Amino acid sequence: MEITAKQIAGFIEGRIEGDENAIVNSFAKIEEGKPGAISFLSNPKYTHYIYETSSSVVLVNEDVVLEKPVKATLIRVKNAYECVAKLLQLYQSMMPKKTGTDPLAFISPKAKIGKDCYVGAFAYIGDNVVIGDNAQIYPHVVIEDGVKIGNDCLLYPNVSIYHDCVLGNHVTIHSGTVIGADGFGFAPNENGYDKIPQIGIVTIEDDVEIGANSCVDRSTMGTTIVRKGVKLDNLVQIAHNVEVGENTVMSAQVGIAGSTKVGAWCMFGGQAGAAGHISIGDKTFVGAQCGVNSGLKGHESVIGTPAMEPKGFFKSSVLFRKFPQIYAQLNELQKEVEQLKNQLNNRKEQ
Fold first, then answer.
1. Percentage of the chain surpassing pLDDT 70?
2. Which active-site residues does the annotation give?
3. What is the pLDDT averaged over residues 100-111?
4. Element spanning 176, H or E
5. Looking at residue 350, what is its pLDDT?
């Protein structure tokens, strides 16, 4: 695909500085630029690369001030990072999609498959499954009985969707992810543990993307819900009966324990975790490796374990690093106090 700077500027509503007829046919990081590539600059610490990059076109924010001339054609926009995302989406949408059913796939005669779908080799689609139009079902995907999948969904190799779960439209699930495995429900008894049957389902709403090797467990009763627009990274664990609010994002290795409710537009850093049966309000930022063990009202930021507001955490961190010194000083003070007590007692006796 070849496109000119003028066409790009029209698509993202940008302003050109340089050759409007400059042609690009690929993308490149600004520090790895090459002729015919388009790059972007959004982080100020990469500004020095713009003077030496070989990329033909560079997207920059409107407020970027350059100290010397550049070779590349510039397109100034309000937000270069958002604009390059739009261009990448456009590029991906123009890539040819696979269609048809591989003869090595198994599709139950009781299943209903929409128009223009692709089903890869060794995929399994069970009884009473309903799949919408334009689905991409890659090899070794397992879709068990009774699953409902909307339009324009993309399931990469080795995804497993357990029975009766529901996926909305425009859902993308990456390799190795399991939707609808049993929640972790066991009741202790004198001989060990009784398994609590997990008879609910998982509901994933529209425009959700889930990374590789993640798990969303089915509910004990009712449904585990991942709301519209949620983005989950690789290796994320969503336990039974959890609700994840609209447009919330979670980085790698986040874990949410059972029956916790997470609000809309929340952000969870890598390896953060939340205890079960709590509520986390809208627009909560949970820092990396943070442990949330009680409810949060929302519109706040927390870090550390146990979770606390950043200012308090940083003060505590300073004290924690000094703890060995403080402990040694405390021991010295205790010795001095004991010496003073002994001296006072000796004087009383005299």
1. 100
2. 240
3. 97
4. none
5. 66
Residue 122, judged by CB atoms within 10 A of its CB (0-12, 13-18, 19+), counts as middle
Q: What angle do CA 336, 337, 342 make, to 5 degrees?
A: 95
Q: Map residue 317 onto helix, strand or coil.
A: helix
CA 94 – CA 99 distance, rounded (Å): 15
The pLDDT tens digits for 146-199 are 999 999 999 999 999 999 999 999 999 999 999 999 999 999 999 999 999 999
Cis peptide leading into residue 44 (ω within 30°): no
CA–CA separation, 104 vs 90, rounded Å?
32
With the CA atoms of 205, 207, 213 and 214 taken in that order, what torsion angle do they form, in degrees rounded to the nearest 10? -40
Q: Return d(Cα 52, Cα 68) in angstroms, integer.
A: 11
pLDDT value of position 200: 97
Using alpha carbons, list the distances in angstroms from residue 125 to 108, 141, 223, 280: 6, 8, 22, 37
* DSSP characters over 271-331: T-EE-SS-EE-TT-EE-TT-EE-S-B-SS-EEBTTTTB-HHHHHHHHHHHHTHHHHHHHHH
Tell me the whole-structure pTM to 2 decimals.
0.85
CA distance 271 to 250: 9
Joined tokens for residue 103 = 């003869």
Q: Are 41 and 26 in contact (CB under 8 A)?
A: no
> Which pairing describes strands 249-250 and 26-27: parallel, antiparallel, or unpaired?
unpaired
- Decide: 226 and 244 in contact? Cβ < 8 Å: yes
Q: What sign results for the dihedral spanned by CA atoms 264, 270, 275, 276?
A: positive
Q: Measured between alpha carbons, how far is 289 from 305 in angstroms, rounded to an integer?
A: 8
